[in-house]
Amino acid sequence: MSPPNSAWRSRRRGLLLALGAAVAAAALVLGMTSGASAATLFSDDFEDGNSSGWTTNGGSWSVTADGSRVLRQSSTSSDARALAGTASWTDYAVQARVRPVAFNGSNRFVAVLARVQSSTSYYYLALRSNNTVELKKLVGGSSTTLDTASVGVSAGSFYTLRLEVAGSTLRGYVNGALLAEASDSQWSSGRVGVATFYTSASFDDVAVTTGGGTEPTPTPTATPTTEPTNPPQPNAADGWASVNAWGQNGTSGGAGGPTVTVTSASAFLSAIAQSGPRVIQVQGMLTLPGPMHDVTSDKTIVGLGSGSGLTGGGLNIGLPIDDDITAPPTDAVHNVIVRNLNFRGWPDDAINVQMFSHHVWIDHNTWTTGTDGGVDIKRGSSYVTVSYNHADGTDKNMLLGHDDENSAQDIGRLKVSYHHNWFDDTNQRNPRVRFGDQVHVYNNYYNDTGNYGVASTENAGVIVEGNAFVNVDDPFHLGEASSGPGRIVARNNCFTNSGTGEAGGSVSAVPYSYTLLPCAQVQSTVSAQAGAGRI
Q1: Which residues are catalytic?
Q2: For 530, which of 16, 286, 304, 305 is 20 to 30 Å away at the CA?
């Protein structure tokens, strides 16, 4: 099936512009009504560029960029705290994303604090450099360990720490898993905070909600937690991009390197070619020469605002093609983040990931018209997450595995998560998969799909879960064109004026934790949150 004609597309874009205000209003409503059982007492994602509402003690604190804006404590030679909130708060949960940047010695830590009385008295959940998490209290500067557990801790990786206090019950979570629990009645109320002990660190997405102790314990494996309300959008790589593999623990991009803002194509191309970690902020729409331009390892490429991006050319994340290489080379491109960019008028692919590139996070981008794919992932690449993107009218949208004859490079690889993407009047390849196993396609919104949604071929293993299909005749099927069938496990999907899809075979569970939104909520949530300008 060919893409819609230009006249139809012009009329459609007019409708989208007319609906823009309504979508924005829906996003506000969704934000206000999520979490009906728990009220938000305080939240800060630091995207306003300041730390208003926080008081600090020790260390060197500032708001800086680390993928997104974060509160950074940059000293490794002090015991430092930043506090917020009011002393009257009683039962609540305080949660933050935390990334230790550097530990100065052994047994150092980063922490979240609850029921803070002063800079020397509070409860805290500490993630320590000796691979432990500890639930503790500090009384007049003297600490007591209430509970402890083993957990892998690496500098440069983000962790979600959550400390719940309800009456005398204290619970500590790391990445959604309950690891520490104790009973203590030293204090019944107090402020919140974050802290470091001889450690530099980034803190982001701090949230304090009422109802401490009511959070269910999610299974820290492939079994999802189903949330009845809209989950927060991630500010760290999740899914396959978060998995420790191939010598890389998660995906942090250019974190720890310098931040540069580029306003010209020449400056942009120079920045993405530099060696070493670097955060590259794109200001405005940059016109690139075609077709694609190489990105080196350890880079974060992020657009500023809602109107920044690239036109005329795309990004290549990977080494030059070499069919003789059948195992990941040591110099494979890795640890790359691409966020909040608009892609227009690309002559080949908007984003191409190839030649065993790994740990890549493609998040909150928008692509419209281009010659070939929106995001193609191929030639042994793996540990990639594609999330919260808006594919607007693309024909050959997302290819995973480029050729039926490429089994030597692809079998056992091409591990990719696709979640919370808006496949908006796309035609095909959403994604089209060869060989990849396990490929996780969950909580995506498909509307008015032309040819088909998901195709699993060449014995690929695809999990299609919790998606919303609206006006999609062929949501998913096995085999495609001359490619032999793959395997699809389909569950918890919603179909509106759509077919029911073709599934078959078995697929192993993915090894990471994830939160599954009920499919009835996917359309409103994803259409309000996906795309550039919505992080």
Answers
A1: 429
A2: 286
